Amino acid sequence: MWPNALLLLLVGNGLYDMACAAALLWFPRSPLSNFHLGIFRSPHSPPSHRPSPLAERMLAYWVGSAGITRLLAGYFYPDRGLLLAAGASFFFEAMAFSHEFVVNRQSMIAWKAGFTILLSVLFGIIVLMDLKIIL
Predict the structure, then answer these.
(1) CA angle, corner 5, sides to 60 and 112, nearest 5?
(2) What is the span of the domain harbouring residue 68?
(3) 95 phi/psi in degrees, rounded to 5
(4) What single DSSP character describes residue 39?
(5) What is the pLDDT of residues 7-55, one digit of tens each?
(6) How many domains does the chain have?
(7) In the chain, what percentage of residues exceed pLDDT 90?
(8) Would you state the pLDDT for residue 49?
(9) Per residue in 46-75, is it b (16+ CB within 10 Å) or e — as a string?
(10) Is 63 among the domain residues?
(11) In this structure, are residues 94 and 39 in contact, taking their beta carbons and an 8 Å threshold?
């Protein structure tokens, strides 16, 4: 049962990230792209606190690269190297959002950033538990 839950997590999150990356690139004002952009802006944010179009595209590339890593880790399960890369991608995501929240707090919505950080750490721990690296 445990591997099935992990596969669902990896493949589901990978597909979600790939869909969000495509939306960010091709439909930047769609509701799906707003799942990631919504962390950085709100309708009430001044324009100076919103990401530039280049930053939005770079976010899409980053989200897509994490998504493909997680998707491949799920597809080729139980490849330890891909699982380690997927786990590391969750921790890197948490670290990046934590850093940006500290450095550029006025441009992020606190509860959304916190939710992303905590969920990324939790997913990373789940992957490392499957690898028997922790617990």
Answers:
(1) 40
(2) 2-130
(3) -65, -45
(4) T
(5) 999 999 999 999 999 999 999 889 998 888 888 866 566 666 668 889 8
(6) 1
(7) 70
(8) 64
(9) eeeeebeeeebeebbebbbebbebbbbbbe
(10) yes
(11) no
- Distance from CA of residue 128 to its chain's centroid? 17
E strands, 4-57, are: none
Q: What is the C-alpha to C-alpha distance for residues 126 and 54, in angstroms, rounded to an integer? A: 33
With contact defined as beta carbons under 8 Å apart, do 101 and 113 qualify? yes
CA 77 centroid distance within chain? 20
What is the separation of C-alpha 63 from the centre of its chain, rounded to a whole number of angstroms? 6
Task: Indicate if the pLDDT at residue 70 is higher than 90.
Answer: yes
> Does 135 reside within a domain?
no
pLDDT at residue 47 in the model = 65
Query: For residue 3, what are its two tokens?
Result: 């591997």
Q: Is residue 59 part of a domain?
A: yes
User: What DSSP string runs through 91-122?
Assistant: HHHHHHHHHHHHHSGGGS-HHHHHHHHHHHHH
Position 117 pLDDT exceeds 60:
yes
Q: How many CB atoms lie within 10 A of CB 4?
A: 9
Q: Considering the domain boundaries, does residue 25 fall inside one? A: yes
